[in-house]
Design brief:
The complex is a heterodimer. Chain A is built from 5 helices and 18 strands. Chain A is an alpha+beta fold. Classes of the chains: A alpha+beta, B mainly alpha.
């Protein structure tokens, strides 16, 4: 008991946490903060705090002065924070979900990095959530200026309603807090292509969506002519032979990869560029001219669904800790401060 | 050049002058310079404050006014401002000329670093959505005032390590370095605790997690642990002198890694990389 409540042990445990934390930032892949060693140090710290604080409380004949209250609140606050963190760890739930405009969900898959209930656990939300519109404004640097999700919510057994989530303004529903956490370029991108085949004099424009069903035309030189939009890159860059990607999310050099099949020929895959309409990579087949004429770049919203019963405990612990530190470190009477 | 950048440069020059005067005092030939140095520092800090307010006002042109502490440049300028403020507040009780020069030149170096470090530009940028929060001001102010208090303790700690007795020009041979460090670190520890907890509340509001093991978060925890060790070692185990000074210096190294290292050491990249 003597050892468990000693300040010597406090110093040793703090030093151990210190070394492991530094190691954790240098070797992030090791996940040091969730290792048995780290947990052991935190448990030892909690035991040390409990024993030390309760022993001090049990001492007889002491008047409870400001510093005593300060000491007690500081260490009690720390204990409550650690307890709250444990509740978060064991009972907390979070999942990051990307929604396309128009998409509806009513269940989630738990993020595999949280708690050890295993990946892939499906959880029913008890409400339906639909992304009506996602509004994203980007700066020239590619950093977001603003992002907002307009949502439609249909809770079980309640009247449906609309809601808006912006960064720093989460939504609370059915015990969940939903945060505007992220965004990404949609896999589905509506692109417009113009097509002219050798026999036809006119140019026709067609709307396609990347990754969705192909466009089938019957021309004179090809029948059928099948065009599939495979992939979209907003800021096209070729990083090596056959390796393509984007420098940024900004539509600086929009490119679409299409597969063109003329009659019974083998399909030909090529990149088309919005800003360089004469450039084809590789060059097109005989007499066929397909150009990329427009894109309405679409983004998915990244919403973080969180249920964390530890939060109120951590908040309470934090407030008690702050009060304790104020009482302990800044004594009103300096005579008081010299003791201990 | 913008008004704020010009005034900031004037402040840097003034801090350097004050630092040089403090160093000159070390030669022992300048007994009555203390009020002059205080006056010079006060003037520099006033220029610095006007620069800060001018920039704050200028941010409104981006459509969303914000207190100018939101990127590398602004936070370094603010760090310099806090160091100068800390010295001015502590000046009546300031122990030694050498450590005063440390604070004054430290204020100059941090403010100047704003214009010199790579990736730091005085251009006013629109505020990122995640930074648009009422927590911003409280979080940044508590953290930087904590850093300034730790810096004061650190210069005294360095002095403890390199000298044992008073030097000419330093009027206070009876100065108790241990209790000065203790007081500075108590104030700093309290402010750092507020800084970490407010950051945590803010992260909860933005991302729904009060703690995410981001490298900057972890380094702030490391800093907090080192100063917690300092306080326990000093209060309960009676550590003094060089051993205690070493803990204070280790704490400030952790402050520097938390504040700058996380952004410049490629090993430690994370969420906070915009500040």
């Amino acid at each position: 008991m003597e050892t468990l409540g000693s300040v010597r042990l406090t110093l040793i445990v703090l030093a151990a946490l210190l070394i492991m934390s530094i190691w954790g930032t240098l070797a992030p892949h090791r996940n040091v903060y969730h290792s048995p060693g780290y947990y052991a140090a935190l448990i030892l710290l909690a035991i040390n705090l409990t024993v030390c604080t309760s022993r001090r409380l049990a001492r007889k004949g002491r008047r409870f002065r400001q510093r005593e209250w300060g000491y007690l609140c500081t260490h009690l606050g720390m204990l409550i924070i650690l307890g709250g963190a444990l509740v978060s760890l064991l009972m907390g739930f979070r999942a990051l979900v990307f929604l396309q405009p128009g998409e509806t969900i009513n269940r989630l898959i738990r993020s595999p990095d949280d708690a050890d209930t295993g990946p892939g656990e499906i959880i029913s939300l008890g409400f339906e959530i639909t992304l009506k519109r996602f509004h994203l404004e980007l700066q020239d640097s590619g950093m977001p200026k603003e992002f907002t999700s307009e949502l439609h919510l249909a809770p079980d057994g309640e009247a449906p309603r609309d809601a808006v989530i912006t960064v720093n303004n989460p939504l609370e529903i059915n015990g969940y807090n939903i945060y505007q956490a992220s965004y990404q370029l949609s896999r589905r991108q509506p692109v417009t292509l113009s097509v002219r085949s050798a026999g036809n004099t006119g140019v026709q424009e067609y709307a396609l969506v990347t990754g969705e069903k192909p466009l089938t035309l019957s021309g004179e030189s090809c029948s059928p002519l099948i065009i599939t939009a495979l992939r979209y890159e907003p800021d096209f860059v070729m990083s090596g032979p056959g390796r393509f990607g984007s420098r940024s999310i900004l539509p600086r050099n929009p490119a679409v990869q299409v597969s063109v099949r003329c009659g019974s020929d083998e399909p030909v895959t090529q990149w088309l560029f919005l800003r360089h309409r004469d450039v084809h990579h590789p060059p097109p087949g005989d007499g066929l001219d397909i150009r990329f004429t427009a894109v309405d770049q679409q983004y998915d919203t990244g919403l973080e669904f969180v249920k964390d019963p530890g939060t109120p405990w951590v908040t309470a612990g934090a407030l008690i800790l702050i009060a304790g530190l104020m009482l302990y470190l800044f004594p009103l009477k300096s005579r008081d401060g010299k003791s201990s | 050049m913008n008004v704020d950048v010009l005034l900031t440069r004037i402040a840097i020059a003034v801090y350097v002058t004050a630092g040089a005067m403090s160093l000159f005092r070390l030669t022992g030939r300048s007994g009555r310079m203390i009020p002059v140095i205080r006056g010079v520092m006060a003037f520099g800090w006033l220029m610095h404050t006007v620069a800060f307010l001018a920039r704050w006002r200028a941010t409104y042109a981006t459509g969303y006014g914000h207190v100018p502490v939101t990127n590398r440049y602004e936070s370094l300028v603010f760090f310099g401002w806090c160091l100068a403020l800390a010295w001015l507040v502590l000046a009546p009780k300031w122990p030694a000329a050498g450590t005063a020069a440390g604070m004054q030149l430290g204020a100059a170096v941090m403010t100047a670093a704003a214009g010199l470090l790579p990736g730091s530009s005085p251009e006013i940028e629109p505020l990122m959505p995640a930074l648009r929060s009422n927590w911003l001001l409280f979080h940044v102010v508590t953290c930087f005032l904590a850093y300034a208090a730790f810096a004061a303790a650190t210069f005294v700690a360095i002095r403890v390590l390199i000298r044992n007795q008073a030097v000419p020009g330093e009027k206070s041979p009876n100065f108790d370095a241990d209790s000065f460090m203790h007081r500075m670190i108590s104030v700093g520890f309290f402010l750092l605790t507020l800084g970490i907890l407010s950051g945590s509340a803010w992260a909860q509001q933005s991302w729904g997690r009060y703690w995410g093991w981001d490298p900057k978060e972890v380094w702030s925890l490391i800093t907090w642990i080192i100063y917690a060790i300092f306080l326990h070692a000093r209060i309960s185990r009676g550590w003094t002198g060089k051993r205690l000074a070493l803990v204070a210096i280790a704490g400030f190294l952790a402050v520097l890694i938390t504040y700058l290292g996380v952004n410049y050491l490629p090993l430690l990249q994370g969420l906070h990389s915009y500040a």
